[in-house]
Amino acid sequence: MIETKGLTKSYDDFLAVDTLDMKIRNKSIFGFLGPNGAGKTTTIKMLTCLIKPTFGTATVSGYDIKKEPNNVRNKIGMVPQLVSLYKDLTARENVSLCADYYGIDKKIKEDRIDELMELLDIKYAENKLVKQMSGGQKQKVSVVASLVHSPDILFLDEPTIGLDPTTKTVLWDLIQELNDEGHTIILCSHDMYEVDKLCETVGIMNKGRLVAFNTPQILKDNLMKENESIAKNQLNDTIEDNKPKLTTELSIMVENWLSDEIIEEIENLPFVYSLRSSYDDEGRLTVDVDKFSHRDGISKVIAIVLKGGGLISSISTNDPSLEDVFTNLTSKGME
Question: Cβ(295)–Cβ(319) under 8 Å?
Fold first, then answer.
């Protein structure tokens, strides 16, 4: 587990991290977000014992970052945004060098390297020079090097930046697999989809302070409620004749055709403002539902589709995304 207690870092008159208090659960995947200059990188540097806090402290795997930095370093692994491998050495030579740095017994070192390279599917390139490798291969070697001393916690800084979608997916699977094996993962990323997909809990920094800490879904739900409350207040302040129609878009994929009677029944619902349908291999039904009755409205639309024999393959709404949450929280107070 990682726990910070009043963790603070200042540089002269600039407060980079302001009394940070948070707990990251053991064996979880934690997403750490923030705009440039928010204090995220400074926090990670303190947690990895690269810099000392001005005030406060933190414990990492039970060790105090100020009193027991060497014990902390033995419990963590770090994959930086910029690959820090020796370009003129092979993949295996780089990992072996890291193992020697941590004083790993030579009797177990080679087996450990083999095991990790097999796990990350990079053993085929173990004798390849780093300068001859692709971006994805380099990232895999970096992860192997960071895991060679069996750390409890792995810090990943923008691990998929600049990678193609296929390689991204491979690394996402790897991150999940490492977590399944018991590693705590701290993921720093600007890819909101990546964080939403992988992370159980998310912390968002802004101007040195922690402005949000919860699961991605709860953060999105909270923003949706906030937006609805704002919209309702604005609507109440609007002259009746000029009130706009505020809607939630419901998209339903069905595997079969819906009859004209079913479409007409949905269109005639009092809370449905418009309906669009398109068919190719599957049918997509897009319904604009009144924003303030959308919970009941969505249920009723789905019930009519099912009653009419519709085989639903997917349902989606235009609810807030994690990117919307991030933008909302980090733009507050900006001029």
Answer: no
Per DSSP, the chain holds a count of helices (H) and strands (E) of 11, 14
Instruction: Give me the average pLDDT of each 10-residue run along the chain (335 residues).
Output: 95 94 95 92 94 95 95 90 88 94 89 90 93 90 88 89 83 89 92 94 95 94 77 56 64 84 87 76 78 74 89 83 90 60
Distance CA 286, CA 312 (A): 13
Distance CA 207, CA 35 (A): 9
Q: What is the 3-state secondary structure (H, E, C) of 28-94?
A: CEEEEECCCCCCHHHHHHHHCCCCCCCEEEEEECCEECCCCHHHHHHHEEEECCCCCCCCCCEHHHH
pTM as predicted? 0.79
Task: Note whether 38 and 210 are within 8 A (CB).
Answer: no
Q: How far apart are CA 36 and CA 279, in angstroms?
A: 44
